[in-house]
Amino acid sequence: GGGMGGGFDGGRPDGCGAAEMACRQANWEGAGSDRGGHGGCPPGRLVGGDAMASSAGTSRVPDDHGVRCGWAHNGECIAPYAQRNAGPMGGDAAAMGGYGFAANGAYGKGKGVDGTYGKGKGVGGGRGGNGRGCGSFRGRAGGGKGSRGDNGSRGDNPPLAGPCQLNPKQLSSAITKASHGLDSLLELLSKHGPVMNFIHISNMWNKMGIKLREHSSRSDWMMAHERDMTELVQYSMAIFDGCSPQGLANIAHGAACCGLEGAPAETLYKSIATHARSKLNDFKPQELANMLWAIAKAGQTAPELFSAAAKVAPPRLHLYQDQNLSNLVHAFATVSHKAPELFDAIASIANDREFLEKAAAQAIANMLWGFAKMEHTTEASLSLFNLVGGLFKQDGPRPPRTISDFKPQELVNMAWAFAMVECKCPDLFVIAAADSIQRIALFEARHLASLVHAFAIAGERSPQLFKVVAEESLLPRNLPNFRAQAIANTLCAYANAEQRAPLLFVGMAQAARKRLEEFKPLELANTLWAFSTAESEAPHLFNAVAEAVPPILHTFEPANISNMLHAFAVLCHGAPALFEAAEDEAIRQLADFKPEEIASILMAYGRIGHPAPRLFEAVAQRSSGIQQYGAQELSNIAWAFAAADARHPLFLSALRRFIVAHEAELATENLVQLQQSQLWIEHELKLQALLLPVPLRAKCAAAMRSHAVHPSKLQGDVRDEVALLEPHWQEELILDEGPSIDIALPTRRVAVEVDGPNHYISHGIGQYHRPTGKTNFKRRLLKALGWLPVSVPSFEWQNLRDRASRQEYLLHKLREVEGPPSR
């Protein structure tokens, strides 16, 4: 296919004319001409006679051997002078026996010609037509500007096996033996793709999958060869009707190993699923397992195929090897397709000690992972978990399986599975911890994250393991490789397991900032939650989040929004723009918020002191939903409305009814919250009808009075200075109403509050040293109870270097509220 297009009817019944046959006999390589679509044979190599072809507009000169030439370029013979014996050729006067020999200039590259479909890649000619010609010759680059050739009619017979055309058997061998790897495979695809059958196509996918599966730059390679891979998909679609089950399985598996994505992958796998459903009974165990694994690996679902497979597979499971069973479970779990009968049947087969002793470690780990992910905890599956756990017990000179049989990924998958199904097997975790510590250098970043994540879910503390993982994670070879999900899982694991690792949190904060755009909303919310739970400040990360999130907040689900704001509030990190945007988004999604999420987000606004009147009003208008709230949510909301001074009597009346109904469930923490809310209602709202019944109020006040307080060193320093100024003072005075005062001057009704860093918003954008909502709420209550609150911030006190300056500072503070203290 050059400019004239391939596949014109020549004088021969097979579509090949005399000129092409002369070239075949001479074994010439075609060279491009100065006319699009006209090429032929280079000079000096004629060994096969003087067949001639006439052509309008071309010179006829003898070549070096004295043979008259029908096609010439720059004085060189391009094709022998042959007698015309065919019809019109792309609008030109001569026929080239069904094949345009000119190079195709459509892509501007001199890479030879593939005439099968009239496509070429050389320079000089126009794009070839779409006729199907006789063969594929490679030509040198053409030189001129050719016009686009017309579409030729299809030849009578398939292409002849010429110098560049292989028969089916040769083509299969060439694919198998591709000497230059991916380049050789693509060259074969370019030359022979249109004539490949399902054996060739499946072999092509298989070989490419093998070479790309472990390719260090697979995604880059696939992107660079997107056009070639799309062409391979198209060729694959054309042969599916006659494709065998093995061919379908190999194509699916190869495409998955190649990392095929996007529309081509969706199209390919959808077609595979459609054709496979009608042939499921003909699939061998490995073929079915591999095909389903590949579809799942590629991120496709194919629910109809999976449903059909779940019915077809069970009667023949006894024929499946351990790896086949594992791939089945893994595939169904990956696409979250429930198949309880199939899973129970597989569990029954695997629930055999001899089977487990011989099975590959990867097969065991993947099966357990699949059962856990699908939450398949029937008697059969739990029995399997217990049997696997028993394999590692030291009940003899050597257990039947050792944990070292499992590679890092397999070990963490198994540990995660045991944790998720809550199968108590402490021996397994003890052995896994010891083995992991010994082999820790083999664990990649994702393995380290998954390992501690599994231990945290299982409630297995293992301090030494967490310590070693923290140290390993911070190494230069690992820290940069922690992706967003791994960062989130790692930090959540340490927070949940209450394992302190301050340096790890510092390093992860830096890693998270660099990958901030990679984080999904859930991963980001969980990461921030971990920092707040561990009480580990990360000001630069939080500032970056506060700036980046508002424009994309609409992509966050309610749980993500509430957890994120909770983290900012706990760490007293100001983010006005974020909180303002979150108020709008929370109102928009309010119907989708669960009770605990509503309580959490209201608590966040109350704690940090950011006003959100529209949100509180929107919640108040949905008072009918209060009946779904538990004791924890009710007390949290009551405190939040009080701290925010959100005055909605009708809502508060409904809230009161349900708090009374849940009285038996109220914990001490809830009672303390309710007492603060009651003081607000009594002394600020002054609405006695909204107060709780007297007995319940008494319980609330008692709980608050018994609430433990722990004076800080800073408070002790301030106390010593106050004692020099005022003889009548009392530390940690607990009022009858419940609140406590750090340093009270009872005779003057002055309440000195020593406020450390957590009483102020810090690290915020343009906000420093502003009291939190929680701190302001306490000051309001003390004032409502008749006390004059005096705040001594830590950041001011620490700047006072001597006693004289501290005494002067306190005198000034006291004068601000009510004259100098008495001496």
Summed over residues and divided by their number, the pLDDT gives a mean of 82
Provide the helix percentage.
40-55%
**Radius of gyration from the alpha-carbon trace, in angstroms:** 39 Å
Structural class: mainly alpha
Report the portion of residues in β strands.
Answer: 5-15%
Largest sheet: 4 strands, mixed
Please count the helical segments.
35
By oligomeric state, this entry counts as single chain
Give, in spatial order, the strands making up the sheet with the most strands: 7-8-9-12
Instruction: Give the beta-strand count.
Output: 12
Distance between the termini: 109 Å
Q: Identify the overall geometry.
A: elongated
**Spans with pLDDT under 50 lasting ≥5 residues?**
1-163
Folded structure, characterized:
The chain is mostly helical. The chain contains 35 helices and 12 strands. The strands form 5 sheets. A 4-stranded mixed sheet has the order 7-8-9-12, sandwiched between helices. A hairpin with a 4-residue loop joins strand 8 (740-745) and strand 9. The longest helix is centred in the C-terminal third of the chain and has 18 residues, at 668-685. The radius of gyration is 39 Å and the shape is elongated. The termini are far apart. Residues 1-163 have low confidence and may be disordered.
Q: Would you summarize the structure shown here?
A:
This protein is mainly alpha-helical and 823 residues long. The chain has 35 helices and twelve strands.
